[in-house]
Amino acid sequence: MAQTNHKLEHLDWAIKSRAQNQRSCLALLTLFENDSEFWKEKKAARAAQDLVAVAFSLWRAAFLAEKTGKRADVFAHGRDFLAKLIEDNAISYVQDKNSKEWTFNYYTKNARSSLTLLNKYWNEVPSYEGKTRAARERWDYCQSLLDVAINNFELTLGSRKAQKDKRAEARTVREGAKRRRAKVREITLSQRSPKTTA
Q1: Is 117 within 8 Å of 50 (Cβ atoms)?
Q2: Alpha-carbon span 153 to 27, nearest angstrom
Q3: Mean pLDDT in residue range 68-95
Q4: I need a labelling partner for 132 at 20 to 30 A (CA). Which of 40, 53, 116, 189 fits?
Q5: What pLDDT score does 192 carry?
Q6: How far apart are CA 168 and CA 89, in angstroms?
Q7: Average pLDDT of the chain?
């Protein structure tokens, strides 16, 4: 009965975590679609790659978080994973799941590395606080950093767009004022010029 309750509790966590990650993926895709020109810039394109790497790594890791974390198990699963890679020359979800003691660590370390690299160049991404965490806690922590990063990029890009719109509006006002001054000058000059009599 305790085994069944643990399994149900893990499945409940996994479903909620996957849903949270999918919402993050959708928010990230929306961010890319709403300001695609920004993401094509060299530095931003690299950030986009790392954000997708974090999102994917956490998506995959959510399926694998039910693990013991024992070093011997991590080593055994890493060895088995490597043997499957060599033997079959292919890896699918089944091999990921069968080697979850190792693969969970791989995916969460990939997420952590991408988050750390992003933080180095972008204020929008919070720094990763290195400390020992249980599997689910590690996943939750990385996912929360991804969510904060996405939200911060949304705010930054919103502010950037507002500034761009403000500059465009100011330019329009200046151009309108310039046209009005030219019109006044034209009228004034036409009134000052001597009229020729026939």
Answers
A1: yes
A2: 11
A3: 94
A4: 53
A5: 75
A6: 56
A7: 90
Residue with tokens 């679609």: 33
- Going from the C-alpha of 92 to that of each of 85, 96, 113, 153, 178, the distances in angstroms are 10, 6, 23, 33, 65
Say how far apart CA 144 and CA 123 lie, in whole Å. 16
Q: Output the pLDDT for position 165.
A: 65
Give the amino acid at 72: A
Torsion of CA 113, 116, 120, 121, to 10 degrees: 70
DSSP 35-54: THHHHHSHHHHHHHHHHHHH
Q: Is the pLDDT of residue 17 over 80?
A: yes
Q: H or E element: which one contains 192?
A: helix 135-192
Average pLDDT of the segment spanning 50-61: 97
Q: Annotate 108-136 with three-state secondary structure.
A: HHHHHHHHHHHHHHCCCCCCCCCCCCCHH
What gap in Å lies between CA 98 and CA 66, rounded to an integer?
A: 11
Q: Can you say how many angstroms the Cα of residue 120 is from the centroid of all Cα atoms in its chain?
A: 15
What region, left, alpha or beta, does residue 67 occupy, with left being phi > 0 and alpha being psi -120 to 50 degrees? beta
Phi, psi dihedrals of residue 128, rounded to the nearest 5°: -85, 125
Determine which of 98-102, 142-146, 175-179 has the lowest per-residue pLDDT on average: 175-179
Q: How far apart are CA 112 and CA 146, in angstroms?
A: 10
Instruction: Please give the Cα distance from 140 to 16 (Å, whole number).
Output: 11
- Tokens 């939200």 map to which residue? 151
